[in-house]
Amino acid sequence: KYNEAIEKYKKAIEIDPNFPQPYYIHGLIYLNTGQKDEAIKYFRQVLELAPDKSLADEAKQSINKLTKKNE
Q1: Element (H or E) spanning 49, and its range?
Q2: Sign of dihedral through CA atoms 61, 63, 69, 71?
Q3: DSSP structural state of residue 25
Q4: Nearest to residue 42, comparing CAs of 54, 52, 55?
Q5: Exposure of 17 by Cβ count < 10 A (0-12 exposed, 13-18 middle, 19+ buried)?
Q6: What digits encode the pLDDT tens for the residues 22-53?
Q7: Residues 6+ apart with CB under 8 A from 21
Q8: For the chain, what percent of residues have pLDDT higher than 70?
Q9: Using an 8 Å Cβ cutoff, are 71 and 62 in contact?
């Protein structure tokens, strides 16, 4: 299911690369599959695209949790 979801959200990113939601969902998928580096990469993309949105706040929290676990 995760691979299927990744492919669907990749298509969403291709359609509108400036829309942050698919990047956030990608981050969550990678987080749930234990791929922390990939999750962080997509969460950071959310911060670049929508730094003032509540989605960015959630992405920041996820990055902080992931980077603290890696220290």
Answers
A1: helix 36-49
A2: negative
A3: H
A4: 55
A5: exposed
A6: 999 999 999 999 999 999 999 999 999 988 88
A7: 12, 55
A8: 96
A9: no
